[in-house]
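User: I'm putting together a teaching handout on how sequence relates to shape, and I'd like one worked example. Could you take DNA gyrase subunit B from Parasutterella secunda, show the sequence you're using, and then write out its predicted structure as tokens right after it?

Assistant: Happy to. First the sequence, then the structure tokens directly below it.
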Amino acid sequence: MSETEKNINSNDYGASAIVVLEGLEAVRKRPGMYIGDTADGSGLHHLIYEVVDNSIDEALAGFANEIIVTLHTDGSVSIEDNGRGIPTDVKMDDKHEPKRSAAEIALTELHAGGKFSENSYKISGGLHGVGVSCVNALSTWLKLTVYRDHRAHFLEFERGKLINRQTAMIQTVNGPVEVSPMIDLGETDKQGTLVHFYPDKEIFTDITFSFERLSERLRELSFLNSGVNILLLDQRTGKEERFHAQGGVRGFVEFINQNRVVLHKTPFYALKTVESQGVPVTVEVSMQWNDTYNERLTAYTNNIPQKDGGTHVTGLRSAMTRVIKNYISKEGLDKKLKNDIDGEDMREGLTCILSVKVPQPKFSSQTKDKLVSSEVRPAVEDVINTELATYLDENPNEAHAICEKIVAASRAREAARKARDMSRKSVLMSGSLPGKLADCQEKNPALSELFLVEGDSAGGSAKTGRNRKNQAILPLRGKILNVEKASHEKLLDSEQVRTLALALGCSIGKDFDIDKLRYHRIIIMTDADVDGAHISTLLLTFFYRQMTPLIERGYVYIAQPPLYKITVNKKDIYVKDDHEYNKVILEIALKDAELYRNQEAFEKGEKIWGTELEKLADSYIQSSEVLQRLSLVIDRAVLLAITSGAQINLESLSQAQASAEALMNQIRDKNLKISAKQDEENHRIYLAIERTVYGNIRHSRLDAHFLNTADYALLVQTAQTLQGIVGDGARVVKGSKSQPVKNFEEAIQWLMNEASSGLTRQRYKGLGEMNAEQLAETTMQPENRRLLRVRLEDAASSDNVFSMLMGDNVEPRRRFIEDNALFVNNIDI
């Protein structure tokens, strides 16, 4: 195509260029508008939040008190509540042909839902009717089960489209009408809604849900809605956590401060409904100061967090500053203070939770990150003005402790200002780069990267092996200051801190300027030992506390040096972990390998080899990885029986009992007991598994959810694929060696042992063990290296972790080490 033709085509902008997206196509086309980032995990977890928020709305309306969130082994998730259930009746004024059920409309149409009618929900987190329909649009499949009016109803969708539609003709006053009701599953004693979905891999970069991230959000909801039971089950690992918090946001503040030294034992707490601009606004707020230097303020509107604040936060801060400043002046606590107290001083060491509930709140976007409702600010100010003033007057000891902290913060701010002024004249703002820094030639920050390397030895190798055009190296000698326990003046006295600040060019703390950052990739490269992990943690603490935007924007990375070097026929292969090592060994093992099913096949020369053997081995390896993962939560012997062809039927109690007996007969283990049971609450049938180990009983179970997962399907498929592959007299051959085998697992293990014996393996413990060429090839060159991007998944969780691991309070850190010691491996001391 000529350049002239290109220009003509590019300017051909007419009616045909206008595209109308129907139904949920807009959500799939631009998911970021509705749920946020689809690459960093925030959008993925937002899917669960949207469904859970609907259940919470049922609780706020007084119709639900139990919510169960289950992470299934196949990567899907289900959310179930005991509310009223989504309406199942057909909506007759529906313009769609045929007339559809209300549930189908709610899941397939944008801006459709019960939140538009104030008769249904007085207070709600959902406003636009796009939440659950977005979840449906962005899921590979979604299954909806509604328990309502003593009947169970069901619908199933694929990428937002109904796949099991049933239609019928009904007679109305206007004649026969075609309708599409939900599928009736029969009678039930349950009440509520069950949404089960699998996120679409075409939309999300990674569909792995984080138990910790979800637990933080569900814990928030339990504090914000006292009396609601929320159960989080992780069938992938066997983790289980129940949230049933009392005390409202006051309990939330006490929970956040549990690992900190607080200045006053009783937090300030207020709960009040105020009429503002004709709108009833309920304000619930709690505050407690601790001895740290950081503010922790989280604001919610109708249970939805606003990370960007809004009118409620503005009202809180302005009123709090006014009330406390008046109290300090009235008590004469600022007589010797040479500078004025400002809001920044009052927020140092403050932990505050603010929750407002308001009908029809207004947000700046669908993600609800900022509240813009004008009526909320005066309501919050009214509550703080009266209630906080009363608290300070009625609790003089605690009021004085708070105010002394604020006065001290004001003095420290003034001292820090003077220190910064001196630093500007000397080191931090001198304009010269640190001598240790080997800078790159590139001046565009977006194309430049800085490696923070542990030790001068590895730093020397990195400098030699780097690409000088865009890779800078900064060796770190020793450990950086623990900034969690340091004041601003102490930070400025630290040589390591000054060196980092100069190298990055953006200063620290209140003077931090992201626009002056010299590198958009900051890569922490340390040894894979205890000291290396400690240095990484100290650096992450520094970036989180003093340069938070670096992490928020995804500029911080952790290098992943290889764990092993494998040498095969004088060729070096670098692998990152044991999983990848096994993959490499299997590939070597299958080369020129042959499998003979039985003695007759061996004599006739009928062999399985090449692609056919690779497919069988791949199926076996996949099931082995599933087995290893599921063995954490389900008895391994039972899983092995499934891979050997055992059938499980849970459709009735009698069929489940027959399955249990068949498993017992196949496994024949006196320490194992399997029985069929039925849950009293939801009447679900399951197999209860009990294994006796040294006098202790380990419990696990198999239920219908597990039988519907991709993991179970893979185990069954592997059993069918490998069935009959190995018989009497079977033999595996590689080169001049051969070995009789009894099963396929034995054949694979022999081949892998043979492959391992013909190579050398070196395990790396430190970067210094690699020369410059090896370090560059494995850890620094973009085409070969592996980097972990550091993300700020949950501010509350991150804040608590840094306070626990790096703070002064030893007890919570000791508990953490004791609780997690058994799960640690590959530590070199």
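A couple of points you could highlight for students: Residues 571-763 form a domain with the GMP Synthetase; Chain A, domain 3 fold (CATH 3.30.300.370). The chain has four domains: 25-243, 248-399, 445-561+789-823, 571-763.
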